Amino acid sequence: MGTEFATITLNNDKILPEQKLWRGVLFNALEDSMLGASDRKSSIYKTQAHNWIVNKTDDFEKICFWGGYDPDNVKEKYCAAVKNGDINFNKKQIAWAKYYKQYLIYKKSTDLESKKYHRKRLEWLRSEVKSATTALISMIIISAIA
């Protein structure tokens, strides 16, 4: 994984341009899952990429196939990297992921009472983000935010 691997793979002349495109999409998600920054945007991208791979969505499977990869193999190797600690999350990244998940619920709320409840929950989660550290945490918790 990483830019070096992506560069080597994408520069292979024996690969069709369409395959290079879809491999690029897959490599971008893998790189997003390795982001180390703990700001809001990076944390959200990292979590979305992680969930996209781990949950093995239809889109993930199609992109793997179109790129010439077996989705089960990609997911297996990704999960091994997570277990080995090559890919990890810190508390602030997890806090941002929870905040964003709640924000999406808030955005979909239509009635006033629901909006009010979700607004209060967002305020509380925002305080959790502010107090969160960048200390790494166990990957067991990651599955809870998916």
Report the structural category.
mainly alpha
Distance between the termini: 22 Å
Total helix count?
A: 8
Q: Tell me roughly what share of residues is in helical segments.
A: over 70%
Mean pLDDT: 87
Q: Which term fits the overall shape?
A: elongated
What is this structure's SSE topology?
Elements: H1 3-10, H2 17-32, H3 40-54, H4 58-67, H5 71-84, H6 91-108, H7 112-131, H8 142-145
Helix pairs in contact: 1-2, 2-3, 2-4, 3-6, 6-7
Brief characterization of the structure:
This protein is mostly helical and 146 residues long.
Descriptive report:
With 146 residues, this protein is mostly helical. It is 72% helix and 0% strand. The chain is built from eight helices and no strands. It has helices at residues 3-10, 17-32, 40-54, 58-67, 71-84, 91-108, 112-131, 142-145. The radius of gyration is 17 Å and the shape is elongated.
Structural key phrases:
elongated; 146 residues; single chain; mainly alpha; 8 helices
